[in-house]
Design goal:
5 helices, single chain, two-stranded antiparallel sheet, about 375 residues, 19-stranded mixed sheet
Length: about 375
């Protein structure tokens, strides 16, 4: 029995490289069920021992509890030393391990530990670990994130929506709520709406090529718009945008003007974009299909995480790039593999606004 399967949740697992563990891991999962009205303890006490090619055994011990509907407070209050309590969220399938880190300014786990927890075969499984930390410079909170490979991005659009919903849960807040969040990309302001979706003021897109950063020469003022990029012998037309993290957006190649994104071999081409020499900080890459001036479809290869079901900053960058190339208007529905996001690049303040869902998956704990 794989550990990730112990949660009994129907998520498709992206293929990851196996990571060696120096000791066994055991996870406890708590799952909310909307059909259960009263506490119900399932004393399954499942024990499994899984041999593998690294000559160690992964031991899984699971006791599943279904608490009262919408009543995870007692679990969130757990403070045992040596145990990492977490809540797993997803934003359109882009999934994260959320950690309450409000009592310290340093992350409770290392990048190496985060990578192990994110492993979908031998860990919990996630695209990243997000820490809710004390605010600085007058903000309410600070958000830090470790990718599934242990690297630390500036911020994450889907992640910040999950971050906002997790704060509301930690603070027992209800209804419309607004927070100021310090990130590596600067000030981000998420607002939980009455319908539960989260609208995030993502700030102004960075269009100056050297600040994205990219080594591609600017061709429109100081921006890189519909420029030629050679990737493994293929000439792609790309527009470079930063939403606090670098993005390379493409609507096609010299030979293929209208991209059909479902036909892409994303695993093959995405990594080559990410590590292209024109991107000194590596890059996220969005491949985009245009249905209409207000309806776009994208697939994404995320720096440090690979192919994911959604990328909030990527969707914002896509709309900015579409406007710069004259392909779309400033307000668009962007379809991602995990679902749609509503993106607006407003003229009055030059800020990009993203609206989409964030949903809790399960509650769990793991030994440090």
């Amino acid at each position: 029995m794989a550990i990730a399967a112990a949660s009994t949740l129907p998520f498709a697992a992206a293929k990851r490289s196996p990571l060696s563990y120096s000791s066994h891991l055991s996870f406890n999962f708590l799952r909310l069920s909307s059909s259960i009205q009263k506490p119900n303890i399932l004393n399954s006490n499942i024990i499994s021992s899984v041999p593998n090619k690294h000559n160690f055994r992964v031991i899984s011990a699971m006791s599943v509890e279904i608490p009262e509907k919408n009543s995870p407070t007692s679990f969130l209050d757990h403070k045992e030393s040596g145990i990492l309590h977490f809540v797993k969220y997803h934003g359109l399938g882009n999934d994260f391990i959320l950690v309450d880190n409000r009592d310290t300014v340093e992350p409770k786990i290392t990048p190496e530990q985060a990578a192990k927890l994110c492993d979908r075969n031998f860990g919990i499984g996630a695209d990243g670990v997000i820490f809710v930390m004390p605010g600085i410079n007058g903000t309410d909170y600070t958000m830090r994130i470790f990718n599934s490979d242990g690297s630390e991005p500036e911020m994450c659009g889907n992640g910040v929506r999950c971050f906002a919903k997790y704060i509301a849960e930690l603070e027992n807040l209800h209804g419309k709520q607004r927070f100021t969040v310090h990130t590596g990309a600067g000030l981000i302001v998420p607002e939980i709406q009455e319908d539960g979706k989260v609208t995030v003021d993502m700030g102004e897109p960075i269009l100056k090529g050297s600040e994205v950063p990219t080594k591609l020469p600017p061709n429109k003022n100081q921006s890189v718009v519909k420029a030629k990029l050679d990737v493994d012998g293929v000439s792609w037309n790309v527009t470079c945008v930063s939403m606090g993290n670098p993005h390379c957006v493409t609507f096609g190649t010299e030979a293929i003007k209208d991209l059909q994104v479902d036909e892409l071999n994303l695993a093959q081409v995405g990594l080559k974009f990410e590590h292209n020499e024109m991107f000194p900080a590596r890059t996220n890459t969005e491949f985009v299909q245009v249905f209409s001036p207000s309806h776009l479809k994208m697939r994404v290869w995320e720096r440090g995480a690979g192919a994911t079901l959604a990328c909030g900053t990527g969707a914002c960058a896509v709309v900015a790039a579409a406007v710069l190339e004259g392909r779309a208007g400033r307000s668009c529905r962007v379809d991602l593999p995990g679902g749609p996001l509503d993106i607006e690049w407003r003229e009055d303040d030059n800020h990009v606004y993203m609206t989409g869902p964030a949903e809790v998956v399960f509650y769990g704990s793991a030994p440090l």
